[in-house]
Amino acid sequence: MTTTEKLIQMVIAIALFIGVMAAILLLTQRLKSRRGERIQAVAFVGPALFLVAVGLLYPAVKTAYQSFFGANGENFVGIENYIDIFTNSGLLVVLRNTMLWVLLVPTLSTFIGLVYAVLVDRSRFEKLAKALVFLPMAISLVGASIIWKFVYEYKGTENTQIGLLNGVLKALGFDTYNFLFYSPWNTLFLIVILIWIQAGFAMTILSASIKAIPDDIVEAASLDGVSGLKMFFFITVPSIRPSLIVVLTTISIGTLKVFDIVQTSTGGRFDTSVLAYEYYFQYFVSLNQGLAAALAVVIFALVSPIIIYNVRQMRKLEAR
């Protein structure tokens, strides 16, 4: 099929869609009744539901079904793939790494963002300080990983260093260190990259929440002699609790799906793989479709409760 034929097909499809929608709208205008309103609702909601079913529900069901089959996707193996995930020594390392990511990244990112937001709040250089911390959010995860690869770059102590950290170590008289080689410390150094990025997101959301705290509450607390850490723990934190939960859960969802940093920095070597990267490796490199599908189901099972909880918290925020 030529490009011209494809273009003609696209134009015809758009024209048909517009024609059908116009016909439905015309029909509902004539049917000034509940039936007409229902037809109009179906006309607008139907295409979106269809796309959700085709783009999300069908792939999810297909993946769950495929997880009960072997590497070639043909031999039924039951729950063997799931047993492998929780018993295979290599995959247990993947689960350990994923747990470290999920525990450390949301917690430290939110803590750093919160402390920073409080420290720069209403200061003379607030805008500049916030812009500097938010800048990493404008960089892609791949770009950030490449930057930090130069920070962690390793060469023998006797060689000229191009890595920032090893350059500092050598200047101070210490031996250089291969930050991305030794497990489990290499995973912690990769985690630093995502914290560096997500701290800006946490700071932005929490700073807005802090500014939304009513002045009456702060003034009343000040008159009662509350200040410093007491003001932070007993006034600021309780007042922004819904925002804190939303930030924590949002970062947790992104962390569970982290792939770019691991792929760019280590390629999953040296025991740094996580669930999302392992899915990619099993499906596209090892060609083990069954195990890859099971890993995808595990990721979905871990993310779903967080998403549901996050949606409920966001609704509470909107209702306030």
From TrEMBL:
<dbReference type="InterPro" id="IPR035906">
    <property type="entry name" value="MetI-like_sf"/>
</dbReference>
<feature type="transmembrane region" description="Helical">
    <location>
        <begin position="188"/>
        <end position="210"/>
    </location>
</feature>
<feature type="transmembrane region" description="Helical">
    <location>
        <begin position="39"/>
        <end position="61"/>
    </location>
</feature>
<comment type="similarity">
    <text>Belongs to the binding-protein-dependent transport system permease family.</text>
</comment>
<keyword id="KW-0812">Transmembrane</keyword>
<feature type="transmembrane region" description="Helical">
    <location>
        <begin position="131"/>
        <end position="151"/>
    </location>
</feature>
<dbReference type="InterPro" id="IPR051393">
    <property type="entry name" value="ABC_transporter_permease"/>
</dbReference>
<feature type="transmembrane region" description="Helical">
    <location>
        <begin position="231"/>
        <end position="253"/>
    </location>
</feature>
<keyword id="KW-0813">Transport</keyword>
<feature type="domain" description="ABC transmembrane type-1">
    <location>
        <begin position="95"/>
        <end position="308"/>
    </location>
</feature>
<keyword id="KW-1003">Cell membrane</keyword>
<keyword id="KW-0472">Membrane</keyword>
<protein>
    <submittedName>
        <fullName>Sugar ABC transporter permease</fullName>
    </submittedName>
</protein>
<feature type="transmembrane region" description="Helical">
    <location>
        <begin position="6"/>
        <end position="27"/>
    </location>
</feature>
<dbReference type="InterPro" id="IPR000515">
    <property type="entry name" value="MetI-like"/>
</dbReference>
<feature type="transmembrane region" description="Helical">
    <location>
        <begin position="291"/>
        <end position="311"/>
    </location>
</feature>
<keyword id="KW-1133">Transmembrane helix</keyword>
<feature type="transmembrane region" description="Helical">
    <location>
        <begin position="99"/>
        <end position="119"/>
    </location>
</feature>
<dbReference type="Pfam" id="PF00528">
    <property type="entry name" value="BPD_transp_1"/>
</dbReference>
